[in-house]
Every structure is written in structure tokens, then in C-alpha cells.
């Protein structure tokens, strides 16, 4: 997945943006930062209305992303991912900490260890928020439902500058 800049009005995201800045300002390790940012996302999880009706439709070809905000200093970005039924990611890990929250539908997540053994599965429903940081962040996300799923992802970098949140893909 390539992430492109499509900045939208941030007024609906102001409290979330301010909360993420506060969490990052603690200057702790990536895992603790992910926990602090997850707390902020739980408090300020937007609704699907943060996207236009057209954006909420997704793409029939693959899941798609919409940049909601990228901090000017490059310290974080907020991305909405839209998944039609059956769409999934490759198994991957990340370049930095990541936090996500589901705002529509259900996302199925599979977690893997460094040897690519499946070590956990979860179905993330509307309102569920989770976060993680490398190492230990190898996973795959899949919309196993019959409706479009949307999630908000916050990454500890401006992913529009680097093109992707994924560090490596696995077979």
C-alpha cells in the first residue's frame, strides 16, 4: 500500500492531534508511546464522517488509504484505511510504532512471531483500539466481514514522506 497525501480539514481531529502531540512529548520508548497514543485515540476516536461519502466506499481493487493529517515536524501521521469485504494486507511489520482504531465494520488481525508462526488472532470491532511497536509487530489485517470496514491508523512518522508504514513484507 502506498500512502499519498490527501489532507482533509482537521477541525474534527483537533483534540486527537493535540492528544497525540501530548503523548509524543513524554519522550518515552516506542512501546510506551504506542500505549499513550492508544489512550488518546480511545478518547478521541473519530466517526466515519471524517471521510467523504466517496472515500468511505473504498476501492474494488484493494484496500485504500486516506491521509487525514501529517504533523509538520514529521513526528506522526493519521491515516484512514478503507477495506471492502475480503481485502487484506500482506504479512508485514512497521518502521515505527503504530496505533489503530476501528470506526466502521470489523477487521480481523493475525499476529505472527519472528519465525512467522501464527501466535494470535483477534476480531477488532467498532471502538476497539490497539497499538504496538517493533519488534513484535508482525501482522496481517483482513476484512472478513460482509460490509466495508474503516480504521484510523496513527504512525510515529510522516508516512506520506516515506511512502509506506511497512518496513518488511513476509511470504
TrEMBL record:
Keywords: Dioxygenase, Iron, Metal-binding, Oxidoreductase, Thioether bond. There is a cross-link at residues 98-155 (3'-(S-cysteinyl)-tyrosine (Cys-Tyr)). The keyword Metal-binding applies. Signal peptide: none annotated. Fe cation binds at residues 92, 94, 139. Pfam families: CDO_I. The keyword Acyltransferase does not apply. InterPro entries: CDO_1 (IPR010300), RmlC-like_jellyroll (IPR014710), RmlC_Cupin_sf (IPR011051). One of its GO terms (molecular function) is oxidoreductase activity, acting on single donors with incorporation of molecular oxygen, incorporation of two atoms of oxygen. Belongs to the cysteine dioxygenase family. This is Cysteine dioxygenase. It comes from Kribbella qitaiheensis.
Amino acid at each position: 500500500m502506498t500512502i499519498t497525501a490527501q489532507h482533509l480539514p482537521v477541525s474534527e481531529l483537533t483534540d486527537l492531534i493535540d492528544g497525540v502531540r501530548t503523548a509524543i512529548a513524554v519522550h518515552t520508548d516506542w512501546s510506551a508511546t504506542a500505549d499513550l497514543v492508544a489512550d488518546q485515540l480511545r478518547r478521541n476516536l473519530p466517526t466515519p464522517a471524517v471521510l467523504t461519502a466517496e472515500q468511505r466506499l473504498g476501492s474494488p481493487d484493494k484496500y485504500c488509504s486516506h491521509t487525514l493529517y501529517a504533523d509538520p515536524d514529521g513526528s506522526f501521521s493519521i491515516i484512514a484505511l478503507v477495506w471492502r469485504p475480503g481485502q487484506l494486507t500482506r504479512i508485514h511489520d512497521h518502521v515505527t510504532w503504530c496505533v489503530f482504531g476501528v470506526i466502521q465494520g470489523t477487521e480481523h488481525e493475525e499476529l505472527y512471531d519472528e519465525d512467522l508462526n501464527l501466535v494470535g488472532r483477534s476480531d477488532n470491532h467498532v471502538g476497539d483500539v490497539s497499538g504496538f511497536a517493533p519488534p513484535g509487530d508482525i501482522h496481517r489485517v483482513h476484512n472478513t466481514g460482509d460490509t466495508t470496514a474503516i480504521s484510523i491508523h496513527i504512525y510515529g512518522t510522516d508516512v506520506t514522506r516515506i511512502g509506506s508504514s511497512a518496513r518488511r513484507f513476509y511470504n
